[in-house]
Amino acid sequence: MDYLIKGATLPSGERADIGVAGGVFATVGRAAAGSTGNAQVVDADGLIALPGLVDPHTHLREPGREDSETVRSGSRAAAAGGYTCVHAMANTYPVADTAGVVEQVWRLGRDAGYVEVRPVGAVSVGLEGRHLAELAAMARSAAQVRVFSDDGMCVWDPVLMRRALEYVKGIDAVVAQHAQEPRLTEGAQMHEGLVSSQVGLTGWPAVAEESIIARDVLLAEHVGSRLHVCHVSTAGAVEIIRWAKARGIAVTAEVTPHHLLLTDEQARTYDPVYKVNPPLRAAEDVEAVRAALADGAIDVVGTDHAPHPREAKDCEWQAAAFGMTGLETALPIVHQLMVETGRMGWADVAQAMSHRPARIGRVGGQGRPIAVGESANLTLFDPSARWRVVPEQLETASGNTPVAGRELHGRTVATFYAGRPTVLDGKVV
Asked: 145: alpha, beta or left, given left = phi > 0 and alpha = psi -120 to 50?
């Protein structure tokens, strides 16, 4: 064996020794202790062993915005957060709307070697919402794209959205929609509600998200195709998704850590670190998405990791960019909000942050159980750790984290990607 991970607690609650050899799990169970050979021993007493995390929604910015993040720095951040696979969104410069660009991103991820980087292809050429991008060519490329999204922009044209859903059906792919009706959000700066009226910022109504989701689940039903809803943030959106699932429509949905944690009250600070798309919502919306994640109406947690250079956030609110980082803090936030409160167990976390996102993205070898013969993608998490978030100490190239200065509960101690450690003793290798 190459590594022997001793005394870890599996998502089921069972304690086990986990042997890793040749990139796969060689042994799982107490019997592993008798055959260590020259294996490097990792003491996992008190640690939770999860299948490597899979993020369905990451912005790595490369090519074109390397001042915010690179594939390498974002991959290091992902590994530090316990991820072994991330889906890199298409809003790069140039846009990832051709086989050439998605292959470039895929190769950058492969060469970095910290996580599996799965490029997301654009739905429309240039994210302009007018013409379908070359979906089949991206699907057939070395990157094997199976998720298409104009994230950052909504596929607002119902005809184009219908065509996209029809197209991906034939290549076993999914359209991931950024649900934002553009006419209802012109000039919007934050959630429309009491706080927006009091602080004087243009409001972003919940119906702008909900109306697109309602339209798209009906289109998905009509076409018989798969739809994934990005960063669900309102109680109304949750109810539409519940209705669609009860009807048998093939819809999945994600929620971000920041929409689980924060409310629009943060806008009272006028600190642009809290400016995000979709915006932080009211307390009742936060409770709705927490409940939906707990009961499975919302399938997965997606970070929507959106790094920006300092000048894009160190300015007045109206001029600031939308977005927050999240790869390195997602699992501790989910642990603190959902596990410590008893709303989810570790098996539920494994489903929401590994198994389901891998299935949605059709990523073979990721999101698999910790079992003999499976690819050794593994996260070791210390739920007892307490740490204060210092942006300068994070692996991401950008410091626009909304939890700067907060104490979080739990931290990734080790990450193994295809049997090779990318994080040991809490440090990126």
From this structure: beta
C-alpha distances out from residue 306 to 216, 235, 303, Å: 25, 24, 8
Spatial CA neighbour of 214 closest among 174, 179, 246: 179
Q: What are phi and psi of 254, to 5 degrees?
A: -125, 160
Q: Domain range for residue 382?
A: 3-48+373-428
Paired residues of 190 in beta bridges: 203
The residues facing 375 across adjacent strands are: 24
Residue 280: half-sphere exposure toward Cβ, Cα within 13 Å: 23
Same domain membership, residue 216 and residue 354? yes
Residues of the chain with pLDDT under 50: 32-33
pLDDT per residue as tens digits for the range 84-96: 999 999 999 999 9
- The pLDDT of residue 37 is 77
160 burial via Cβ count (<10 Å: 0-12, 13-18, 19+): middle
Q: pLDDT (tens digit, 9 = 90+) per residue, 55-89?
A: 999 999 999 999 999 999 999 999 999 999 999 99
3-state SS record for 114-162: CCEEEECECCEHHHCCCCECCHHHHHHCCCCCCEECCCCCCCCCHHHHH
Round to whole Å and give the CA distance between 213 and 211. 6
The tens digit of pLDDT for each residue in 33-45 reads: 455 678 999 999 9
29: left (phi over 0), alpha (psi -120 to 50) or beta: left
The CA-based dihedral angle spanning residues 233, 234, 239, 240, taken in that order and rounded to the nearest 10 degrees: -70
Any catalytic annotation for residue 304?
A: yes
Beta-bridge mates of residue 25: 20
Count CB atoms within 10 A of the CB of residue 142: 12
Cβ neighbours for 265, distance < 8 A, ≥ 6 positions apart? 195, 283
Does 284 share its domain with 305? yes
pTM tops 0.85 = yes
Q: What is the CATH number of the domain that holds 392?
A: 2.30.40.10
Per the structure, the count of domains in the chain is 2
Structural domain includes residue 407: yes
Spot the catalytic one: 2, 17, 304, 348: 304
Q: Are residues 38 and 160 in the same domain?
A: no
Q: Is 332 helix (H, G, I), strand (E, B) or coil?
A: helix
Backbone angles phi, psi at 27, to 5 degrees: -145, 145
